[in-house]
Amino acid sequence: MYKDEIDTDKLPQHVAITMDGNGRWAKSKGKFRVFGHQSGVKAVRDTVEGAAEIGLKYITLYAFSTENWDRPKREVNALMSLLVSTINKETKTLLNNNIRLEAIGNIEELPKKCQSELKEAIEKTKHGSRTTLILALSYSSRWEIINAIKQIVKNKVSEKNINEELFSQYLTTKGVPNPELLIRTSGEQRISNFLLWQIAYSELYFTDILWPEFRREDLFEAIYKFQQRERRFGKISEQLKEKN
Ligand code: IPE
Ligand code: IPE
Ligand code: MG
Known about the structure:
binds magnesium ion, 9 helices, binds 3-methylbut-3-enyl trihydrogen diphosphate, alpha/beta
């Protein structure tokens, strides 16, 4: 069991996951793509509970990208109604596990019903202190960065005050530590416009597992393997050892 192998003193603070492969999973079973999305909910529940179980502080799930709006209308609508029903049903799971819900992305683009369900769940779970679950919805990193620049210009921030810290404050992830680990399922090895600024030094972990089959033990495996890596941040190995 990978769970027992994890060094809980060296947990990443923040893990981000691109949940990919729902459509291919459904197709492999001779089902419609939507069935894959529906089945992905169980993977979300198990993974998020797993995150709380080990005490991960932040988990961000890429659930719907800006580019996903360009999918067939049928699929977009199905995803939006699934989102509404899932947020509604799973609020209990969040409360039971002491999890706080947050959302990043262009939330105003979502159907009104989604926005209100989301708002309600965020409000209901706001005292959750074990883990923060951040859903990336109608999110894309370039959208976020452009948005940040617009705000900076609007606030007439002077050039001398612009630095990495200030810029981070204008991103939707303000106040959230950068993810140390980014997981992507389904074998695709790309970023797809996700957290470009924030993952500058993240460890990337790709697995062939299709999202509907992903479970907490797979999260634990990724974290265990992350802990075996040496993060050098531009330095050399010997320098890191000196510190310890
Ligand atoms: C991920 O699965 C879910 C969303 C992007 C909403 P996909 O729907 O991308 O599934 P594949 O990649 O086509 O298999
Ligand atoms: C990335 O998956 C977005 C989400 C998981 C929400 P996609 O399936 O949309 O990404 P591409 O199109 O394969 O890059
Ligand atoms: Mg995909």
